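Example record used in the benchmark description.
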Amino acid sequence: MKKILSLVIAMVLALGCTAALADLQFGTGGESGTYYGYGTVLAQYISDNTDVKITVVSSGGSAANIDDLEADTRQLGFVQNDVAYYAVNGVRLFDGAPVENISALAALYIEAVQVVTNNPDIKSIEDLKGKNVSIGAAGSGVYFNAIDFLQVYGLTEDDINAQYLNFQETCDALKDGKIDAGFIVAGAPTPAITELCTTQGAQLLSLDADHIAALQDISAAYAETTIPAGTYDGIDADVTTVGMKATIVANDSVTEDEAYTIVKTIFEGKDEITEGHAKGAELDLEFASTCGIPYNAGAARYFAEQDIEVETAE
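Model output (C-alpha cells):
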C-alpha cells in the first residue's frame, strides 16, 4: 500500500512539474513577416536564458492574436498598438465586445504602413482609385489602416477593387500581375517586400504632412515614420509614412513574475537579441512604456525599477 501511495505521489509531483514548465504560446504573424522572424529570436533568447519557456506560433497577425489571447489558446501575442486599443475599448473590429483579459508587456518597434506597388502609373494613394488593391484580411488591423488611408484621400473601399490578402499573398499577387498595389503593415525591411523588390522591383508610396495629420486625427496611434532610402533594393529615396507600435501583449494566464522576467530579459539582452534580428537595435525603454493600453503588473515592476511609471491593468 505504501508503495502504491508513493507511486501516486510521485506521479502527482511529476504532473505538477510538467504544468509548471508548460510553454507560453506566442502568436506572431505570417512566416514572411517581421513579427514571426523577430518573435522567434525573442522567444529563443528568453527560453535559453530564463525559466520561462516560449513557443512561437505563426498566425494571422494582430487581430487573430487578440482573438487567441482572449480564448487562451495563446498567452502572448504581437499586436499593433492601435488594434490593442480597439480590443480593450471594444471599438472598430471589436465593436461592442471589449477584450478584458489582456495587458501590455512592452512596445518594441515601429511597424510602418507600407503601400507597395509595381505599377508605374501609381504615384499616390489617390491613384489607387479603380485599381486592384490588397487591403489585408477582412477585419484585420491592416484592413482598418487601409480604410483610414483611403478615407483621408477622399476614397472608400468601393472606389477600389479590394482584395483581402495577407503579406505573402499580396506580394505574390503583385509578382503575378493580379493586383496593382497592396497594404502591408510591418517593420521595415519586411521579408516579403524585400523578396519582391529583389526579384521584380517595386516602389512604396509616400505621404505628405497634411495627410499624415489627417490620419493622426483618426487615431493617436499613428506616428510619422521614415523608411530610409536603400532599405529595399531599387528604392533610392526616403519614404514617409505612418506607423504604429508593435507591442507584446499578454493575457491573464501570464503571471506577474513571468511578465517581469520576459520584459527584463528582453531589455537586458538587447545586444544579443540585435545579433539575431536587426529590430533589436530599436529596443528603448521610454518607447516601450507607452502603447495606449494598461500594462501587466510584472512589466510595470520592471519599468518602475528603471524609474519609469506605466499605467497598469486593474
